[in-house]
Design brief:
Blueprint lengths: L4 H12 L4 H17 L10 H13 L5 H18 L24 H9 L3 H13 L3 H5 L6 E2 L4 E4 L8 E4 L5 H20 L8 H6 L19 E2 L6 E2 L5 H15 L8 H14 L4 H8 L4 H4 L3 H4 L16
Helix pairs in contact: 2-4, 3-4, 5-10, 6-11
Length: 321
């Protein structure tokens, strides 16, 4: 099904409208699931009733979260409204009741233990996730031009929701980042001698065909191998893959003895937000650093803090007996 002309048409439509490759992959996944749910009937032969049944099934049988159901709805809305040019109208499907759970947060000592079991570029990526509140994809996509060592800031470009933001950079990483930047530029120059370079955004690469030779566009964490660009097919060097960091993190947690918590890359972004709030940082500032549109998204971390939030303590601790 991955090579079907229909799915290729959907991919072309998403790229024409500027959707990210990650969103494209997610939407295609849900569209495939919808097609399989309807016994591989073509979506043109389905409609609002089939979409309603699928979304209801996700909620009542698969027990997905509200956010997962919303993602599936967005994918099918794109399919029918933008590709098939069909209006679905009011669907009236059963809403998912599984709400967001509290995020896993590490203590400061647990973060230190895990970092002590890591080294090299993988350690620095985890340090950036914890020290700057980055998603793993944001850390991996950092280019030389995104790092300001004088102002100790990072520019996060085209992040989730196609947003840009600026966040802080820990001063303790300055020396290591300077070395990584020098290595990245050296790798870029070596690639340029062979007529290749870093992967570029498609539209920018067309407008500035020699931009891949500029040191400012070099990835700070380049891949160890060359690959073909997923859109243009040109030979280039992308950044490290997320699985490289996940595998290194899994080994580090085991070595550090942090095995009682479910730790993944996003745990360090959660820990960044929680520790910032616990230290007295204003929640609006944390919202800006994380790039949240709605402060209610940031407020979930206040539930993790306990006694540190707004000076609240347990009434048991006030007893004099």
């Amino acid at each position: 099904m991955s090579d079907s002309p229909f799915l290729r048409k959907i991919s072309s439509e998403m790229r024409l409208r500027g959707y990210s490759l990650k969103t494209e992959k997610t939407y295609l996944l849900w569209i495939r699931r919808f097609i399989n749910f309807n016994h591989k009937r073509h979506p043109e032969q389905c409609g609002a009733q089939e979409v309603k049944a699928f979304l209801t099934w996700l909620a009542t049988e698969r027990h997905v979260s509200a956010n997962t159901q919303k993602t599936a709805l967005n994918a099918l809305a794109f399919l029918y409204h933008k590709v098939l040019d069909q209006e679905l109208g009011p669907l009236g499907f059963s809403l998912a009741t599984k709400q967001r759970t509290l995020p896993t947060v590490l203590s400061v000592s647990e973060v230190a233990q895990i970092l002590s079991a890591m080294s090299g570029s993988k350690k620095m990526i985890v340090q950036l996730m914890y020290g700057s509140g980055l998603r793993v994809s944001e850390a991996l996509r950092l280019r030389v031009q995104d790092v300001d060592l004088d102002r100790l800031s990072l520019s996060i470009r085209d992040s989730k929701g196609n947003k840009d933001r600026v966040t802080l950079l820990g001063a303790s990483l300055r020396a290591e980042l300077e070395l990584s930047i020098a290595n990245a530029i050296r790798q870029q120059q070596e690639d340029n001698e062979s007529g290749v370079g870093c992967s570029m955004p498609v539209s920018l690469g067309r407008k500035y065909p020699n931009a891949f030779r500029s040191p400012s566009w070099a990835f700070i964490f380049p891949s160890t191998t060359l690959c073909h660009h997923p859109v243009t097919g040109e030979l280039c060097r992308h950044h490290l893959h997320e699985t490289v960091v996940r595998k290194a993190l899994r080994r580090a947690c085991k070595e550090a003895g942090v095995v009682t918590k479910r730790v993944n890359c996003h745990t360090f972004r959660h820990s960044f937000a929680t520790h910032m709030l616990a230290s007295g940082t204003d929640i609006r500032t944390v919202q800006e650093l994380l790039g949240h549109n709605d402060i209610s998204t940031t407020q979930i971390y206040t539930h993790v803090i306990g006694q540190h939030y707004a000076g609240t303590v347990s009434p048991l601790d006030r007893l004099q007996c």
